Automatic annotation (TrEMBL):
Protein name: tRNA N6-adenosine threonylcarbamoyltransferase
Family matches, as HAMAP family: TsaD (MF_01445)
PANTHER family: TRNA N6-ADENOSINE THREONYLCARBAMOYLTRANSFERASE, TRNA N6-ADENOSINE THREONYLCARBAMOYLTRANSFERASE, MITOCHONDRIAL
Entry's cofactor comment: Binds 1 Fe(2+) ion per subunit.
Domain Gcp-like intervals: 26-315
Domain of life of the source: Bacteria
GO biological process: proteolysis; tRNA threonylcarbamoyladenosine modification
InterPro entries named among the record's database cross-references: ATPase_NBD, Gcp-like_dom, KAE1/TsaD, Peptidase_M22_CS, TsaD
Alphabetic keyword roster: Acyltransferase, Cytoplasm, Hydrolase, Iron, Metal-binding, Metalloprotease, Protease, Transferase, tRNA processing
Source species: Phycicoccus elongatus Lp2
Chain positions recorded as substrate binding sites: 136-140, 170, 183, 187, 281
Amino acid sequence: SDEPLVLGIETSCDETGIGIVRGTTLLVDAIASSVEEHARFGGVVPEVASRAHLEAMVPTIQRACETAGVALTDLDGIAVTSGPGLAGALMVGVASAKALALSLGLPLYGVNHLASHVAVDIVEHGPLPEPTMALLVSGGHSSLLLVPDVTSDVRPLGSTVDDAAGEAFDKVARVLGLPFPGGPHIDRAARDGQITIDFPRGLTAGRDMERHRFDFSFSGLKTAVTRWVTAEREAGRGIPVADVAASFQEAVTDVLTRKAIDACREHGADHLQIGGGVAANSRLRAMARERCDRAGIQLRVPRPGLCTDNGAMVAALGAQMMLKGREASRLDLPADSSMPV
Ligand code: KG4
Ligand code: ZN
């Protein structure tokens, strides 16, 4: 095959992800996670994450190659997340990628983590229509991105002004006594609940909305949930966890889908792609489906395993860069923890 065979390395947070893609075909997505080591701290501990990447890196690369039936010497390129993310965690991935590129004599492609969350949908649903609107919602980011070309032109239209959507899920889960990371637990709890509480929708009305059309704010919502729960406890009442979860989840997904569809309309995008860990949320998927159908917008959401951080997304974007003839990175490529898109 003359399609480029690319190995991608993702270490921006707590997942050591190794993916191998041939052109636009995913061959393997191998992952090692340190999430359990962080659970008792209620959040990701950077130093713990870096050490875990260092231990998992080579075994995960070996497992990916074995599963795909690929030898390192078959590869045509190495791609790696060079930012944004946790500095020490990124450095482990970038150093590993350089070692592979140098020893194998292959081009190295440093890629942006947010862009690769968008690019992964190519191996799932084929070429991205240009432009695509992307809603990226994870523990670290909540952004609306206009994507004329995922390899070279990704334009941020707005992002969160405080907490990321996933962070809000994690914090509210904590208030409700659910384990970390809280998103999946809220999702599950909400299935048995009713939307009984009208929690605030940040930046959706008045002056705030005008100044922050495509920005998000979730800290007011988190505070409102905390206040509600505290008041119930102080009144000696039990907490209807399922109802609080469903009501909170409704507020988040309402704002996300409303703003995403407004952005599509305003920028003439008739495709909306949703990525990031929160894209695994069942209510968000259902609501986005419903509202996109009504608005005549095509919805693209990768399978949940490709929405959370993984190596396939990095390999997918690296392969696109090779296919489009983009310039490779130099071997002194830095890790940039606050890299913009
Ligand atoms: O993309 P991701 O794996 O890592 C980064 O943060 O970059 O996203 C993790 C986030 C966590 O905050 C987690 O609680 C949230 O995604 N999450 C969910 C669900 N599954 C994961 N949030 C809501 N519903 C879910 N089903
Ligand atoms: Zn991510």
